[in-house]
Every structure is written in C-alpha cells, then in structure tokens.
Amino acid sequence: MSLRFQRLLLILLTLIIIFSAVLLILYNTRENVSYFYTPSEIDESDMLTKKIIRIGGFVEKNSFNKISSSSFKFRITDEKASILVAYDGILPDLFREGQGAVIEGSFSDNNIFNATNVFAKHDENYMPKSIKESLKDTGYWNKNYK
Amino acid sequence: MNKIVILTPLIILLVICIFSLTYLLSGKDPNKPPSALLNKDVPIFESSSLYNSKEIIRTIDIKNKKTLINFFASWCSPCKIEHPLFFEISEKYPELYLLGFNHKDPTSQAKKYLEDDGNPYDFVGVDADGLIALEFGVFGLPETYLINENGKIVFKFMGPITTDVLKNEIEPLL
Amino acid sequence: MSSLFGFLSLIFATGINFYLFFSRYILRFQSQRFNFFIRLSSLLTLLSFFSLMYAYIISDFSNYNVFQNSHSNKPLIYKISGTWGNHEGSMLLWLSTLSIFSFFFSFTKNIEDDFKKLTLIIQSFLHILFSLFIIFTSNPFLVNSILVNEGLGLNPILQDPGLAVHPPVLYAGYIGYSIVFSIAIAGLFQNKDDEWLYVAKKWSLISWTFLTGGIALGSYWAYYELGWGGWWFWDPVENISLMPWIAGLALVHSLMMVRGEQAIKKWIVFLSILCFSLSVFGTFLVRSGILTSVHSFAADASRGIFILLIFFIVTGFGFLVFLLKEPKKSNSLNLLFINKVSALVINNILMIIATLTILLGTIYPIIIEVLYNKRISVGGPYFNSTVIPIMIPGFLLMSIAPILSWQTNKIINSKKYALGFIILSILVLIQSFFLEFNTWGLVGLLLGFWIILASIIAICSSYKVKFTIKFFQIINPHIAHIGVGIAIIGITCSSIFQTELDFNLNEGDKFNVNGKMVLFEEIATTNQINFQSLRGKFLFDIEKDESRKIEAGKNYYPVSKMITSEAGILHQWNKDIYFILGDQKNNEWFVKVLINPFVSFIWLGVIIMMYSGLIAVTRR
Asked: Number of Cβ pairs closer than 8 Å across A and B?
C-alpha cells in the first residue's frame, strides 16, 4: 500500500466515524428525550401518544392510596389539573403528600399515568421544627432585627 | 481553512454562552416547577383573621385593589429575614393591600411573632391546615404573590424577598 | 473573629495576585521574590480556607455561612466537611486547590524561569477571577446579622464519609487542569522548545488520576447511599465530571506522541484548553443551578452570570490566544494505516466526539427551553445509545494500540493475537449461550476480556518479566488498559445482567435469592442519638452454618424531618446482593433484592487505572 492510499483510508475511516456519530446523535435526540409537563399542560393528544414523559407537580393531599406494600396510586397536581398516577416499586424517601415530585412514565389506555420513576424533591425552605423551637425558647432571635 | 477550523471552538463557546445567558436571564429555575397560576385568577379562598375569628376575608374582598399576599409562619426563619421589608413596602405603597397568611402555626405563637417583630400586614389570615397554601400552590415558606386589580396573579416569588427582588420585580408592577 | 481573619487573608492573597499580574512587565521581578509572592498568596488563600474550617469546627454561628450549614450536634468530621458542603465554602475550596497547585508548580525545576513565571502569572489571573467571584457574590465570611446559638444545617444525606471526601478529590482533578491550561498558554506565548510538553504531561496525569478518583468516589457514594442499586445515572452533575475526564484521557494519550517525537502541539494545546474549559463549565452548570438534577443546589442568577462570565473569559482567552499564536507547523505526523500514531489519532477523535455528545446531551434541555419554551430531560437512554457505540471502536483499538509500532504497519506476533481473539470469541459465545444471551452483554464481555488478554499477551511476549521499577514503568500502558478491561467487565455485568427480585414478605418468611434461602427475621426499630432507625433483618443462606446477616431499612431524622434509605449490601467478590426495604401494608413488607454481578470489578478497574496514572507520572 502506498503512503497516500493509507492516509486516504484513514481519512475515510475518520469521516465514517464522525458521520455515524452524527447520525446516532440525531436519532437519539428524537427518540430518547422525554418532555417535561405540568399536569395542566397535558391534553388528550399527549395521553394518546404513549411516549415517555415527565410530569412535575405536587402530590395531591389525601390522594395517596396504598394498594399493596409495593403498589401505589396518587394524584399529581399543579392546582389547575391533576393526573392519576399508578406506581409499582419503592417510593423515594422524600415522597410525601403535598410535596413536590417529578414522575416519569407514560399513559396507559385508561388515561392512568403509569410511572416508572418517581423523584421527590425536598423542600429546603421549611425550617426544621426542633431548631425553630430551640431558637424560640432561648429567645435568641433579635427583636429589633434590621 | 485552517483558521476557520480553529475558530470553531470560539464559535461553539459563543453559542453556549448566549444560550446559557438567555436562560439565566429568563429567570427560569428548572428545579422548581413553573407556576401554573401566573396570569391566572386568584384561587378562591376564605380565611378568618388571626385576631378575631369572626372577621372573615374572601377572594371578593380583594377585588379591585392591588394585593400582596405573603405566606409566613413563626417557625420559618427565612420569613424573619424578609419580614422588615414588608414595613418598607407598606410605608412606600400605602394603597397596596398587604395580606399575610399565617401557615400552620398555633395562634398564640403567630401572635407572639407579630408582637415581637411587628405586624406589617393589613390583614392576617389564618391558614392553620395549609389548605389555602395548597390552593395557591405554595412550595415552601415564605412565598409571596402579587395580585393586580383584575384579580390576576401577576407575580410570584419563592423564598424570602430581598431588596433586589422588591426593586426589580415587584416595584415595576406597582 | 476567624471570619474577619479569613476574609482579610483572602483579600491580601487577591491583592498579591493583582500586584503580580499587573507589575509583571513593569517591575521585572527577581526570580526569588516572584516565587516568594506566589507562595505567600497560596498560603494566605489556604489560611483563609482554614479559618473558615475553624469557624465550622468551633461552630461559630456568628458566621452566617456556618449558621446556615452547620449544627453543633454534628460529629466533628461532618463539621469539617461542612466547610465545603455548601456553595460559598466549596468555591473557597476551589480557590484553595488552585493555590495549592500554583504552590507546588512554583517548585518545578526543569523548565525555563521565564516560562515558569508566565505560567504562574496566568494562574494568578485565574486566582483573581475566582476570588473576585467569591468576594462579590459568594462570600463565606459574612457576619450573621441575627444572634443565634444554634445552626440550621443538619441535612442527614450530607452526613456521609463518601460525600465528605468526594468534593476535594474531584476538585483536585478539575483544577489540576488549570496548571495544564496555564502551561499550554505560556507555551503558545513562548514557543521556543518542547520542554514544556513533558511538564504538562506530568500535571495532566496527576489531575486525571484525581479526577478518576473523584468520579469513582461519587458513583460509589451513589451506589450505597441513594439506595437505587445503580452507580451511574447520567445525571447532569455526573456528566459534567465525565466530560473533562474523557478530554483529559485524550490529552494524556496525545502527550504520549511527544515521546515518539511526533509532537502534535497544536492538538495538545487545544486539548489542554478544552479540559480546563470543561472543568470551569462544569462548575458553572452546577453552581448556577441551571440544570435539573437529583443533586439540587441553591440557585442564584447573579452568581450564574458571574461564573458564566469567568467561563467566557477563560475559554475565550484560551482559544483566542490559540487562534492568534497557533504553533508553527511541527514535524509532520508519521501516519500509516495502522501504526501507533494513527491509532492514537483515531482514539483522540473518538474521545472528542464522545465528549461533544455528552456536552450536547447536557445542554440540550437549555437550548430547547430557550428556543421552544418546552422542558425536556435527556436521560440515560440517550447517553447509553450514543456514547457507548461511539466508544466501542476505541476500546477495540486500545487492546492492540500499545504494541503497534511507531514507524511501520507491522504488528509483532499478530498471529498470536488473532488466535487469542478467535478462542476468546468462541468461549464468550458459548458462555453467553448457556447463560442469558444479550447482544450488548456479549459485546461488553468480549471487549473487556479481549483487552485484558491482548495486554497480557503483549506483556508476556514483548518484555522479559522481572520485578523492577523499570519493568513496571514499561508495561504501565498495558496495566492501565487491563484496568479498563476489568472495569468494562464490571460495568457490563452489573448493568446488563442485573437481576431484580421483588418480594412481599411477613416477618419470619423464607425466600429464595439466587438459589440461596434467605430468612426475613424481623423488623426492628431502635432509637439512636439523632435518628430513629427501622431495620429489616435478614439472614442470608440459612442452610449454611455461617449465614450472613444483612440489614436494610430507613432512618428517620426527627430534627430535620427527613428519611434516608439504608440499603443492605452483601459484598461478595463476584456479586453484590443489594437489599432494599420498601413499604408495608397489613404487616406485609415489600422487599426488593438486586443481584449486581461483578460490581467490585468496576472499583478494582478504577483503582488499577489510578495506580497506572501515578506510575506514569514517575516516568519521563
């Protein structure tokens, strides 16, 4: 093989690699990306597509229902609309009614959202209760705070 | 040709920076769900006064006036941090109606809190079970909402408001 | 008091750097004094960091940062690690690490004095940028305006030894690239000889080793603490540490070509700038709170804009100098179809593509939201199906690359390799036929074993085995690749051949895990000092005499009202058995058992890679 031919082969190989990488990226950004909605943004067409999406909102108060030790139903809401979610598995530690949560999954035929993943977010603005009490007891909060 | 190739990283850098900057300036925060309530009507609520349980405030009562609603609690330390700002607001904008909702607090402690730190609110509503907060989609205390004359929520802020927020985001709407 | 002291030292350190930066061409320092000032500023920065740490140790709540993030009841070690467990402190750690690197670099002997000074001046410049950021937007020394006697920080998730050491190690990796960056820029300005390439190589190896350790610690933490049974989630925070890692790997490999006297300086300089840029970009993405991540950080737009500005200045400056002062054409590459040079070039191309793919996936949500106002999330599936296929040809190449020759197309002992590969393929095929068949699993196992086998053949047939330091230095590239092979096997097995078993159990039930009987003894609740624990107690393999106890459950921290999962992990050399205790209904408990085969191989592979990173530093 001449030196020139060898280099040509190399360049060709590189181009093929780059080309297939671009194809991969293009394909996957269409297929493997999930959209994020709030419950009120979801309409009929979203329910029909059966694509994997994420829904963010709060776990509605008094909606949590334990079917068995590993299967749960609850509603996720943004105060405008709410969606019934079914989930099998272990809920995250921070999952609680009234707390923010993000649910990943897809709609089933009867418009129930089948969650494959549940993420809960802890709310940092709340102050731990005992600290607030100890603060109050000692009266260390300065009265004329400026 | 060679120069153009070397220019690409700079171009990519510029693109990334422009997008990130636009994103940052748009004030979006991906860690908090977007409020579905913005530019929507105020939720219907009904609450009694902290000082007189017979005195009731309803959604209709704040129609036709600009209202600043603040959710607070005696046990919430960030609330203490923003508290003095409400005195400034009420001094500067006497026509603005300041409505405070006391969130999940024993009455006595709420009263003591407002005694110690002062009461800037025109009306303090009790939200003992947190239902009003739920209606408003409160994520965490403190949280502040601005409602215009038409009863639409025009501004919402999570966490303690600061002088910057007051100057740059609330005041232009007043 | 310590706050004031810390703040003043920070100001002084910054002042010295300003002085060094601006007076460089006016005053013409004596070498001795220049080094003295650089070291002084480094020590002052460290002093400032330690005074913050001191404030944490003595729980000085008059410091607002300590008040927000610490608590007097915390164990000492978490008070110390609390120093960098928050935004302000972690930025100060950033700066201190930068100083430490400058400090050590100032002792480098075998480069020209002018060159060294220029490098350190660039380091000073970086120091100034970040200390201004700290002083103006994230000062950890603010005094608390309210008098308190107790702090607010008791986040139990952060009270973990893994999380305590992870940030410093990771930062050492990120910021080590600042030295490489400065050296490369200095090299562009003073383009005399190639001596600096050797210095850059050492520092890039050191930072790469730290970065490897940091990433591994992070994923090990996620594995045992998050309780999801996985160790890599393609979370944005993980991705941004992976980007400089891959780019750094490309850099280390390119620097190899210096030894073959085929310096591709232009490319090396490009990679050096890229590595540090990616590190700063990562800091920007994390600290601006721009990403949706499981690990959420407090967001503040002004901080984000400031770091974005720093990122823009650093990267823009780097690439601009690169554009204007690009190195003269060095001796051309000896590219043949399959020799070492071409293998290294292809490997570099693959790594850069992989880095760009991850970068794209990480910032894609930002772009989409700005353009279409839609929120999307790019998760595991995207990265798995783009990054892995891109890396596969690289892995194949890497098995034979170290034995390729610099000059010719010939592969020594090529028959041995061909034979080895064929036998291995058959073995893996047979094995996967009898166990479960999975294409990706097959590819992964074949690759992993092939890399190991090829490296061993290479070691045995090319060198005389003797146990001297020199020998270990020579075979070091092979050792590194064996580490990668082991890690690939671990990754493949634990992710593809993971089995998940779900049980609904009453206390006293027996159940079958992987052919072994397990007894669900009882649920026990105990009160610890600052939390309540709920534990499911299991006895593994009850038919044997020495059955093993496993405890899985949850901790409830009443102070912060938080619950944390505590997975029970039974480590065996060939698999981890991972117990997660779920919820209960009518005394029936949900128990999830994951069998992760060969997880330990991942950590072993990582350790081998770090080892050979260190060995490579010792070799010129």
From this structure: 67
Lowest mean pLDDT among A45-59, C230-244, C380-394, C487-501: A45-59
Whether residue A137 lies within 8 A of chain B, CB to CB, comes out as no
pLDDT category, A131, cuts 50, 70, 90? Answer: very low
User: Which pLDDT belongs to residue C174?
Assistant: 94
Mean pLDDT across C281-294 = 72
Q: What is B3-61 written as a DSSP string?
A: HHHHHHHHHHHHHHHHHHHHHHHTT--TTSPPPTTTTSBPPP-EEEBSS-TT-EEEGGG
Residues on B contacting A at a C-beta cutoff of 8 Å: 31-34, 36-37, 40, 43, 74-78, 80, 83-84, 109, 116-117, 130, 134-137, 139-142, 158-159
The pLDDT score that the predictor gives to residue C475 is 87
pLDDT in tens, C308-355: 999 999 999 999 998 888 776 655 666 666 778 888 888 898 999 999
Among the residue ranges A9-23, A60-74, B104-118, C150-164, the one predicted with the least confidence is: C150-164
Chain-chain contact of A136 with B36 (C-beta, under 8 angstroms): no
Supply C266's token pair.
Answer: 């232009």
Rounded to a whole number, what is the distance in Å from the CA of C469 to chain A's nearest CA? 37
Under DSSP, is residue C309 helix (H, G, I), strand (E, B) or coil? helix
The CA distance from C545 to C206, in Å, is 48
Domain boundaries, chain C: 1-155, 160-410, 412-620
Which residues, 6+ apart, have CB-to-CB distance to C590 below 8 Å?
A68, A69, A70, A90, C502, C503, C504, C505, C581, C582, C583, C584
Q: Give yes or no for a contact between B83 and B77, defined as CB atoms under 8 angstroms apart.
A: no
List chain A residues with CB under 8 Å of C374: 35-36
Q: What angle do CA C66, C69, C75 make, to 5 degrees?
A: 90
Dihedral pair phi/psi, residue B103, rounded to 5°:
-95, 120
Domain count for chain B:
1
Taking the CA of residue B103 and the nearest CA in chain A, the distance in Å comes to 11
C contact chains, 3+ CB pairs < 8 A: A, B
Q: In C65-176, which ranges are E strands? A: none
B103: in domain: yes
Chains A and C: how many Cβ contacts under 8 Å? 145
CATH number at residue B120: 3.40.30.10
- How do strand A113-120 and strand A82-88 relate by DSSP bridges? parallel
Is the pLDDT reported for residue B107 higher than 90?
no
Closest chain C CA to residue B14 = C312
Taking only the tens place, the pLDDT of each residue in B34-48 is: 454 566 677 788 888
Residue pLDDT, tens place only, A86-114: 998 888 776 777 777 788 888 887 788 99
Task: Identify the domain containing residue B163 by its residue range.
Answer: 36-173
For residues C340 and C409, give the distance between their C-alpha atoms in angstroms, rounded to a whole number: 9
> Could you tell me the pTM of the whole model?
0.81
| Closest-CA distance of chain B to residue C615, Å | 33
* Rg of chain B in Å (alpha carbons): 20
**Nearest chain A residue (CA) to B112:** A136
- The structure tokens listed for C203 are 């520092």
B24 contacts on C by Cβ (under 8 Å): 288, 290, 301, 304-305, 308
